[in-house]
Amino acid sequence: MKKFLALLLTLVMALSLVACGSSGEENTGDTTDDSTTEETGGGAADVKIGLICVHDINSGYDAAHIEGLTTACEELGITANADDPANSQVIFRYNIPEDESCLDAAVDLAEEGCNIIFSDSYGHQMYMQQAATDYPEVTFVACTGDLAANSGLDNYKNIFPYTYESRYVSGVVAGMKLKELMDAGTVTDPKVGYVGAYPYAEVVCGYTAFLLGIQSQVPEAHMDVQYTNSWYDPVAEGEAANALMARGCVIIGQHADSTGAPSAVQAQKDAGSVVYSVGYNIDMLSVAPTAALTSAQNNWSVLYRDTLEKFINGEEIPVDFAVGASEDAVMISKLGPECAEGTQEAVDAAWAGIKDGSLKVFDTSKFTVGGAPVESYTFNSSIVDFTTGNTIYEGQEYETIVDGAFQESVFRAAPYFDIRIDGITELNPS
């Protein structure tokens, strides 16, 4: 009952937080709030960490988080051993759904002595906020989310990488292969597919960046998107990939957390089809040895290390922290054996352009909507509960088109690009 009442209080609080909302200043990726500095027990040896995972090591997304946190701990001299919990400073909680189970897990971790607790899924964030309310002496970090900046809490943070950058570069890899196939006359229709989890901004942002990367090599390329309505469902992801290939898609990208799509593509390739795969989170060559071209990846160790280092040193943790290629927070996996000649050079050029600012992923001269250029687009920072469709926080509005490019992850860390550009067809948008 206490947890239920606490959760109810969170909802009431969220609805009353207009006065605590954003100041209207841009989030440059290093934005800090005006809260007091976090305090720790005095160093790495005194840190006890909790990580709440929506799935487990079998999910590529969760595996990337587990590896990222473990790597960061090793670099900072923190003992992280999932196989020996009694001698580990990190406690892992696996298969925690995006419901009150997250609050239960967060409370349990706080009661077990964790002084900083992370969660890895968007739907965890409301429950993390409630735990932060109940345990003000503990720091809570939602690794994807948009509530922290408006929570009014000193001990609640959001962190997220610039995922769209690696999506774009993985699209360059796909585009190079598509161009090779077209130049050889093997493919005449430059049609690609994408297995997406949900029609959320995070997914829309990613697949749009992916197509723009492809179009940097094949301007006439177009894409179909099939949603699975699940972050992790190997069967549904494989079925979605098969449906897209049946529609003539020759390269299948994904924002879904299993190996289902690449495995399906490899099966079709083995059967004689000309098809290739671009994965997500992990290297897919183990399940798609000849079909996998690369995977878009997040280097979560960068964000975990930075956050933990500040925590250990008693420094202020940014309330809404986002970084990308310039900080090595995003990357792509090893190129597959059937990548087109010259792909590495094209990849290197894309990364260089992103890092020096000469390449803007969402350059508005590179896409249209309804045949017309996009000269203005407003981002509403209101928070919506996707499970109900209800608005839980009324936020400010921001003009996102500045100097001819959409400003992604500037006004908050979590992606908000949700423009449906020409050349992309959502097969099941609702």
Briefly summarize what is shown:
With 430 residues, this protein is of the alpha/beta class. It contains ten helices and 21 strands.
Explain this structure to me?
The protein is an alpha/beta fold and 430 residues long. It has two domains: 2-7 and 27-162 and 300-327, Response regulator (Rossmann fold); 163-298 and 342-426, Response regulator (Rossmann fold), CATH 3.40.50. It contains ten helices and 21 strands. A seven-stranded mixed beta sheet has the order 12-10-9-8-6-7-21, with helices on both faces. The protein has a six-stranded parallel beta sheet with strand order 2-1-3-4-5-11, sandwiched between helices. A two-stranded antiparallel sheet has the order 13-14. Helix 1 crosses helix 4. The radius of gyration is 21 Å and the shape is globular. The relative contact order is 0.16.
Shape: globular
Number of domains: 2
Assembly level: single chain
CATH T-level fold name of the largest domain: Rossmann fold
Q: What order do the strands of the largest sheet run in, or round the barrel if closed? A: 12-10-9-8-6-7-21
Radius of gyration: 21 Å
Unreliable stretches (pLDDT < 50, length at least 5) are: 1-41
Distance between the termini: 35 Å
Helical content class: 25-40%
CATH top level assignment of the largest domain: Alpha Beta
Specify the biggest β-sheet: 7 strands, mixed
Number of beta strands: 21
Q: pLDDT average, as an integer?
A: 89
Secondary-structure class: alpha/beta
Spell out the CATH superfamily of the largest domain. Answer: Response regulator
CATH architecture field of the largest domain: 3-Layer(aba) Sandwich
Number of helical elements: 10
